[in-house]
Amino acid sequence: MQYVLYVKSGQATSRLMTHVPRTTRSTVSSSDGAERPRRRTQTERSDAMRRRLIDATLHCLTKDGYAATTVSSIVRRAGVSRGAHLHHFPTKNSLILEATEFLMRRAYRLLGEMLLAIAEDADRVAAVVDGAWKTIYGTRHFGAYFELITAAKHDPDLASAMQALSERTLRTIDGAIDHYFEKRAEGVVTPRDLFVLTHWLLSGIAAGERASVSAADSRHFLEVWASMMATQMRSRRGVRTAPPRPADWSAG
Q1: Burial level of 234, CB count in 10 A (0-12/13-18/19+)?
Q2: What is the tens place of the pLDDT at every residue in 115-156?
Q3: What distance separates the 2 farthest-apart alpha carbons in the chain?
Q4: How far apart are CA 207 and CA 212, in angstroms?
Q5: Residue 237 DSSP label
Q6: Is 142 part of any domain?
Q7: Is residue 28 part of a domain?
Q8: Which of 136, 164, 206, 212 could pair with 107 in a Cys bridge, judged by C-beta atoms 3.0 to 4.6 Å apart?
Q9: Cα–Cα dist 75/83, whole Å
C-alpha cells in the first residue's frame, strides 16, 4: 500500500519519531546587533501542530489499539489542547486516516530513495520486497494499520474511508510501478498485479509474526516471493530518475 517510489529532496529519517524533533531556527539580527531566533510563520506552526497530532495518533494506535485510542489520549500524548485538535482534525477518524496516509507517504519516499540507490537494475525486484518489509510491513507502526482494518469490520464509516484510502494508494503507486518496472513477456501478469499481491502477502506475514511465525520463516518466504516476482517482471533498464510526483500530493 500508499507506498513506493517518489523521492522527495532531502534525506528521510530511518525511523518514525513519536514526537516532533527539535529543529534549528534561523536567526535574525536586531537593531542592537544581537541575533535572535526567527519567529515561525503561521504555516510553520500549523504544520508542526499537525505533525505532533499525527505522531501521537500513531503512538496511541500502536500501543493501545483502535478502541482505546481516544481524542483525549491523543491530545494528552501530543501535549496540546483539545481545541488545537479540533482546529486541524474535526473527528477522531479524520486524524487517524491522516496519520495512516502519512505513514504511507513516508514509506513511498523511503522506498524510492532505496531503489534509486541500487546500482544494478536487476537487483530492484528483490530490493523492493526487502525494502517494503523493512520500511512498512515489518515495523511496529504497521500494527496501527492492522488495528484500523480490524475496526473497520464493525464501523461502516471507517470502512468506507479505508477503502477510499486504499484506492487512492493504488492510483499513487501506478505511475511509480510503470516508471521502474515492466513485465517480462506478453501474457504474463502485470507488475501492478504483483505489487497488489505483494501487499497482501506481506500483510499476512506481518500478521503471522504477531502470532507464531518466526523471523527466519518470514525472511525465507520474502526471498521466495521475490524470486517468483522476478520470473514475471523486471526493472526497466537505465532508470535513474524519480517518477512524476503524485498529482494529489501537497507541497509538504
Answers
A1: middle
A2: 777 766 667 889 889 988 988 888 888 888 888 888 888 888
A3: 74
A4: 9
A5: T
A6: yes
A7: no
A8: 136
A9: 9
Prediction pTM value: 0.70
CA distances 112 to 84, 94, 238, Å, are: 34, 27, 15
Segment (H or E) for 35? strand 35-37
- The answer to whether 178 and 244 have CB atoms below 8 angstroms apart is no
Helix, coil or strand: residue 37: strand
Dihedral of the alpha carbons of 4, 146, 51, 63, in degrees to the nearest 10: -140
Q: Residue 118: give the domain boundaries.
A: 44-235
Which residue, 36, 3, 1, is CA-closest to 243? 3
Read off the CATH number of the domain in which 78 is found: 1.10.357.10
Q: Which amino acid is at 50?
A: R
d(CA 77, CA 82): 11
Does 15 or 196 have the greater pLDDT score? 196
Q: How confident is the model at residue 23 (pLDDT cuts 50, 70, 90)?
A: very low
Going by C-alpha positions, the residue among 221, 223, 228, 220 that lies closest to residue 127 is 223
The β-bridge relationship of strands 181-183 and 233-235 is antiparallel
Name beta bridge partners: 183: 233
- Flag whether 7 is in a domain: no
* 24 or 37, higher pLDDT: 37
118 contacts 127 by C-beta, under 8 angstroms: yes
69-80: average pLDDT: 88
Which of 3-7, 47-51, 83-87, 133-137 shows the lowest per-residue confidence on average (mean pLDDT)? 3-7
Do the beta carbons of residue 145 and residue 107 sit within 8 Å?
no
- CA pair distance 66, 159, nearest whole angstrom: 13
More confident residue, 252 or 104: 104
